[in-house]
């Protein structure tokens, strides 16, 4: 915080509480994350993305009957209109996040409840978008490769269906499980930049599709969701585990950052990271490519002194290697984050609508005052 005269400046809104929430608790000093009171470790180890979506949006873990009805609706909503796939085809050369943002924007023209901002309709739309978005991401990857999109499965779970549409084959149970865990870990994270941006849009009493488009655009940056892609690019540039330490020292000495480290809130290890670290190791051994895990582990070792400054590994550090080992194209990594986060963005929009107040901070003006106007003809 900087104080100039009577003004307290909180650059980047660092340390500022925007509102109250019952959905996500983060203890940055301890490295603790709860969704509606449930520890992320329990949810990642024992739950499914479908259950977590229900927990976040309907405020309780579903019983069997509730889960069956919820799951049936999600499966029924997976298709996207042919017109939207045509748009995907037209913009197929763009980055997958640009394509997803454009397609979600186009879906607003087809959703029967786009302009209904009631809480019930907003939740229904958020779940529909959660179901439709994997279809868009997978269809885009196939269309740009000259392949026909695979229609959504009516039987596979949410994570398995995404991989099925992306790979054109049924995923192994382990692949589907890893994707499921990944979606759980990314589902919600308080007032992160993209959820905050979605809230700003909702606070003007705009609609959910607009807010999700805002969220996608904000998530794309390398300081937020784009980090997993950057981590894998970095790993490929380093190329072998033995070169990791020297590469990192050079990077840090030159004032650069090592992607996948640091977090605005966590000043301890990001609790989500361990689940992907374990899977990166196992998957690397299974696929005969253990060098990526070793390279990342070596980087983590070099970064140890930075822990004193609160810079620890974050969720994106091992995520990239997990996706890469599963055969997911690198430029889709951040889209996977988006697929997991749609319920979280929806939740933030719902909370914003429940007690709405326009989000409109102030800027301290430091420019000149009362400058005499010079007509165009007289300007030098
Ligand atoms: N490597 C080296 N130094 C770092 C790093 C890093 N990854 N992150 C922060 N620092 C240093 C930074 O150089 C600065 O040093 P100094 O005070 O000497 O100038 C200090 O730490 C504070 O940096 P900051 O950017 O002011 O801190 P922040 O809390 O605003 O940064 C962050 C958070 C995520 C933007 C930053 O840590 C970063 O750029 N990390 C790399 C990108 C990344 O992994 N992003 C994914 C975040 S987790 C997924 C998500 O939730 O989106």
Layout of SSEs?
Blueprint: E1 2-4, E2 7-9, E3 24-27, E4 32-35, E5 38-39, H1 40-46, H2 49-58, H3 64-76, H4 82-90, H5 96-107, H6 119-144, H7 158-167, H8 173-186, H9 193-203, H10 208-219, H11 227-238, H12 244-253, H13 273-286, H14 291-302, H15 316-326, H16 333-354
Antiparallel strand pairs: 1-2, 3-4, 4-5
Helix pairs in contact: 1-8, 2-16, 4-5, 4-6, 5-6, 5-10, 6-7, 6-16, 7-8, 8-16, 9-10, 9-16, 10-16, 11-15, 12-14, 13-14, 13-15
The protein binds carboxymethyl coenzyme *A (CMC).
Written as H for each helix and E for each strand, in order along the chain, the element string is EEEEEHHHHHHHHHHHHHHHH
Instruction: Supply Rg.
Output: 22 Å
Total E-strand runs: 5
Write the CATH homologous superfamily of the largest domain. Answer: Citrate Synthase, domain 1
Number of self-contained structural domains = 2
The backbone outline, from C-alpha atoms, is globular
Strand content: under 5%
The percent of residues in helical segments reads 40-55%
């Amino acid at each position: 915080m900087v104080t100039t005269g009577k003004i307290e400046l909180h650059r980047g809104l660092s340390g500022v509480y925007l509102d109250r929430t019952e959905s996500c608790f983060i203890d940055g000093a301890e490295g603790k994350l709860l969704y509606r009171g449930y520890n992320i470790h329990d949810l990642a180890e024992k739950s499914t993305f479908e259950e977590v979506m229900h927990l976040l949006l309907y405020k309780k873990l579903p019983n069997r009957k509730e889960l069956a009805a919820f799951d049936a609706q999600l499966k029924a909503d997976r298709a996207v209109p042919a017109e939207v796939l045509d748009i995907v085809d037209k913009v197929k050369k763009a980055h997958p996040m640009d394509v997803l943002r454009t397609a979600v924007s186009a879906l607003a023209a087809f959703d029967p409840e786009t302009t209904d901002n009631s809480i019930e309709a907003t939740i229904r739309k958020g779940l529909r978008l959660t179901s439709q978005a994997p279809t868009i991401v997978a269809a885009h990857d196939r269309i740009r490769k000259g392949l026909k999109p695979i229609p959504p499965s009516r039987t596979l779970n949410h994570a398995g269906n995404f991989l099925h549409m992306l790979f054109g084959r049924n995923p192994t149970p382990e692949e589907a499980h890893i994707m499921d865990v990944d979606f759980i870990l990314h589902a919600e994270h308080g007032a992160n930049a993209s959820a905050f941006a979605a809230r700003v849009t909702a606070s003007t009493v705009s609609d959910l599709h607009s807010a999700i488009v805002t969220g996608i655009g904000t998530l794309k940056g390398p300081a937020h969701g784009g980090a997993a892609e950057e981590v894998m690019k970095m790993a490929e540039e380093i190329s072998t585990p033995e070169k990791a330490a020297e590469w990192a020292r050079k990077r840090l000495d030159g004032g650069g950052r090592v992607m996948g480290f640091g977090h605005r809130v966590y000043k301890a290890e990001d609790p989500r990271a361990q689940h992907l670290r374990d899977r990166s190791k196992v998957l690397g051994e299974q696929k005969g490519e253990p060098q990526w895990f070793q390279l990342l582990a070596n980087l983590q070792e070099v970064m140890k002194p930075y822990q004193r400054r609160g810079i620890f590994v974050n969720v994106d550090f091992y995520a990239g290697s997990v996706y890469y080992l599963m055969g997911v194209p690198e430029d889709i990594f951040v889209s996977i984050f988006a697929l997991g986060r749609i319920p979280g963005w929806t939740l933030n929009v719902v909370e914003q609508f429940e007690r709405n107040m326009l989000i409109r901070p102030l800027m301290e003006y430091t420019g000149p005052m009362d400058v005499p106007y010079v007509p165009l003809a007289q300007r030098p």
